[in-house]
Write a structure and sequence with these properties.
The structure is a single chain. With 225 residues, the protein is an alpha+beta fold. It has 2 domains: 130 residues, Roll (Nuclear Transport Factor 2, Chain: A), CATH 3.10.450; 90 residues. 51% of the residues lie in helices and 20% in strands. It has 9 helices and 7 strands; from the N terminus they run H-E-H-E-H-E-E-E-E-E-H-H-H-H-H-H. The chain has a 5-stranded mixed beta sheet with strand order 1-2-5-4-3. The longest helix is centred in the first third of the chain and has 19 residues. It starts with a helix and ends with a helix.
């Protein structure tokens, strides 16, 4: 856990660096790391994912992002791809790398709000703009269906426990449930177990995603009654 705690401190330090250079106002924070830092998601997340808040010159922004990052960290990779801006950095040689992805897409109006990023492993809070929990649920449904990663299912269950109402089509519900049934023991023991807090590991080994599956199945049944 110490390695993950140190990495989370790195994430917060990077966000703080962006804020000090007035770059966070152009971005919408998303992904599991946003849920972790802004809503206390009980798992660690290793990358930072962003969308744009408004229309922006991608090349110009990427230049400012690289400049701000290089002042504090060693950049190990920087690419402007067709769909996104990718930046990878580390604090020093031999330390864990932090990957940043900024999608070349403007977040839909009304899907984001101001939030405070916080970690017990970093002394400063950072004001950011992040997706609403309702929008995060939609994003995570798409992610789970497309890539089938167990961390996305964990995040969906977390969002349901936070009170987000599922709003899925019949096809989406079936696709999500199919993904849930496809996870193996190793997925829970290794892939999920390595990133969630210790006191939750045994629960998910035994119960898997029963709560999430029952909730989605109940909503599906309720819509037919």
């Amino acid at each position: 856990m110490k390695r993950l705690e140190d990495h989370e401190s790195f994430e917060m330090a990077f966000l703080n660096q962006l804020a000090s250079r007035r770059l966070t106002g152009s971005l919408v924070f998303g992904g599991g790391t946003m849920l972790r830092l802004c809503h206390e998601l009980p798992r660690y997340s290793l990358d930072l994912d962003f969308w744009f808040y408004n229309e922006t010159d991608f090349g110009d922004f990427f230049g400012r992002l690289r400049e701000a990052s290089s002042q504090a960290y060693e950049i190990t990779d920087a690419q402007e791809k067709f769909h996104s801006l990718l930046l990878e950095m580390r604090r020093a040689r031999g330390t864990t790398k932090l990957k940043i992805e900024v999608r070349k897409k403007v977040a839909t109006a009304g899907t984001s709000e101001q939030k405070i990023a916080y970690s017990p492993h970093f002394p400063t809070q950072v004001l950011v703009r992040g997706f609403t929990l309702k929008q995060m649920f939609k994003n995570k449904v798409s992610a789970l269906i497309e890539r089938g990663e167990i961390r996305d299912a964990f995040d969906l269950e977390f969002l349901l426990r936070k009170g987000v109402d599922p709003d899925l089509s019949h096809e989406e519900t079936n696709a999500v449930v199919k993904r849930l049934k496809g996870f193996k023991k190793r997925d829970f023991d290794v892939k999920l177990g390595s990133i969630i807090l210790p006191d939750l590991r045994e629960y998910y080994r035994v119960n898997r995603f029963t709560f999430l599956e029952e909730k989605l199945t109940f909503e599906k049944w309720q819509s037919k009654s």
